[in-house]
Design a protein that fits this description.
Keywords: DNA-binding, Transcription, Transcription regulation. One of its GO terms (molecular function) is DNA binding. The chain folds into 3 domains: 55 residues, Orthogonal Bundle (434 Repressor (Amino-terminal Domain)); 100 residues, Response regulator (Rossmann fold), CATH 3.40.50; 133 residues, Response regulator (Rossmann fold), CATH 3.40.50.2300. It is α/β, with parallel strands linked by helices. It has 14 helices and 10 strands.
Length: 335
């Protein structure tokens, strides 16, 4: 055992496992031990003594007061949820709260353990989690600390939930059909992502519903190279006139691939992206894309937490987080 491990403070979850009870029972042991059965109380006490576990009594004494602090939990990975944090922080500050961001390592089980400890400590008035937390409602009930699990990303920061909604793809296909397009190509993102699978499926459903022709679905990997490769693989004749890409980077690659082949965008082929990256607005032609309101996603999650703290009704939902923005990379289908 390393020196660090030897001196690591034991957790409430470890006490619960040793005593063969839930962490809620351990929490009740410290709050109201007389409410436990004698045998259960004895097991918890023995585990507490064996592990030398001590709760944060200073923080616990604050339970009857508001701290004015809220926590936002994100996983520790390369993806930076800065825009969601910006929206959440703005909503919290407007309501008079300070915000602390906790970047927690590990998967859902480890994250749940840390969230349980934080909720039980009384150091914050409420918690928003932008990654999966197990049994959030139970954690909230046992600790008395409101918890909003707005799990919009999985443990690998792949978009799930509202972020995986692909209905905007249907709007793109319908809009292109209104411009006269009948032959389409879809380049996917990495199909390990729920969002990539949802966009592929919605594309195929829209093609079928409108009686259009799909020239194919080319599996990509979110990179510009996959966009260029998909265009390079098209025949010179009888090619699609509209390309639906999974993000702006792939769309930029598709545009470059078209230009390299001597095709004009959008005169010969229309191209759409997703994400509304700032660079896409500066391309020539400027990129038709889907805006993703990540700030709104964070703001709404924080608003749900604040209304829970204040026992107020939930705010009415605002517009969807996805919005199609039509620009110069799409036009009337070639004759």
């Amino acid at each position: 055992m390393t020196d660090t491990a030897a001196h690591r403070r034991p957790t409430i979850m470890e006490v619960a496992r040793l005593a063969d009870v839930s962490h809620q029972t351990v929490s009740r042991y410290f709050r109201a031990p007389d409410g436990l059965k004698p045998a259960t109380k004895a097991r918890v006490q023995a585990a507490v003594e064996q592990l030398n576990y001590r709760p944060n009594l200073v923080a616990r004494s604050m339970r009857t007061r508001r701290t004015g602090r809220l926590a936002v939990v994100v996983p520790t990975l390369a993806y930076s949820p800065a825009r969601m944090l910006s929206g959440a922080s703005a909503a919290a500050h407007e309501a008079g709260y300070a915000v602390e961001v906790l970047s927690l390592e590990g998967g859902a089980d480890e994250r749940t353990q840390r969230v349980a400890e934080l909720a039980d400590s009384g150091q914050v008035d409420g918690i928003v989690a932008f990654a999966p937390v197990n049994a959030a409602a139970e954690l909230e009930a046992s600790s008395g600390t409101p918890i909003v699990a707005s799990a919009d990303f999985d443990d690998e920061m792949r978009g799930i939930g509202e972020l995986a909604d692909a209905s905007a793809v249907g709007e793109l296909v319908r809009g292109l059909a209104d411009l006269g397009h009948r032959r389409f190509l879809h380049i996917t993102g990495d199909l390990q992502f729920a969002s990539a699978r949802a966009r592929r499926d919605t594309y195929l459903e829209a093609i079928d519903a409108l009686g259009l022709e799909s020239f194919g679905v080319v599996e990509g990997d979110w990179s510009s190279e996959s966009g260029m490769a998909a265009i390079r693989g098209l025949p010179d004749q009888d090619r699609p006139t509209a390309v639906v890409a999974p993000n702006d980077l792939v769309a930029a690659g598709a545009i470059r691939g078209a230009i390299d082949r001597g095709w004009a965008v959008p005169e010969d082929v229309s191209v759409t992206g997703w994400d509304d990256q700032p660079l896409g607005r500066l391309l020539r032609p400027a990129l038709t894309t889907v805006e993703v309101d990540l700030e709104g996603l964070g703001s709404r999650a924080m608003a749900r937490l604040i209304t829970a703290l204040r026992d107020e009704p939930l705010p009415s939902e605002v517009r969807p987080i996805h919005r199609v923005i039509w620009r110069e990379s799409t036009g009337v289908a070639p004759r």
